[in-house]
Amino acid sequence: MSLDKTNHLDINRVVLLGRVFDEYYHMFNLRDISQSDTSILDVASGVSSFCAEANAKGYNVTASDVIYNHLPEEIYEKGLSDVEEIMKKMPSVAHNYNWEYFKDIDALKATRLNALTLFIEDYKEFRNKRYLNVEYPFSNFLENQFDITLVSHFLFLYEDLLDYKFHKDTIKELAKITKNEIRIFPLVNLQGITSRYISQLMSDIELQSLEFTIIKTDYSFIKNGNEMLAIRNTLL
Prior knowledge:
This protein is of the alpha/beta class and 236 residues long. It has one domain (29-150, 162-233): Rossmann fold (3-Layer(aba) Sandwich), CATH 3.40.50.150. 33% of the residues lie in helices and 18% in strands. A seven-stranded mixed beta sheet has the order 3-2-1-4-5-7-6. The longest helix is centred in the middle third of the chain and has 22 residues, at 72-93. It is globular.
């Protein structure tokens, strides 16, 4: 089943839309993750407030994104601009989303602005400490440096902008630096269709040491988008 291809959110670049801790908690089934004794990497974390909120709750989270080479003021202005742009487009595509977690577009916008504000406050204090400038598909992290790695609304979602090689190289890099499990959400692209790259990755002979499992979650904003991909290295 797919969404209406002629009426979906039209985005030709990766946008800065932040998610809050509660969204991450449900997207990635974090109820099974302990706090202080688990090292978590947030990949392409953008202006999400997960890192800020999670660390305040006792988790050990590092955020990573290429935008972290910019000043807080620059990121904030870009974040505000992206929220405004996307919210203007939402009414015409609202039927492609489930309005349960968010009751309406105003509630969605308020959450995105709240995430941006919480992120910026934390980023000002912890830039270059727990917010690290990383340009995927590669990083300077150590082998098995993190217990859990989370990828939210980046891989698969932007499959028309990020090609298969980028996806493959990124997952290989994450498998190297992650000790236990990589979790990617959602598995659909911007058209609401399951990404074609998932089956390719699962059958790629160069990734045969990785175990792929599709897991349902209790977060579903994009219709058909309530699954995450869990990846483990079977050689560890």
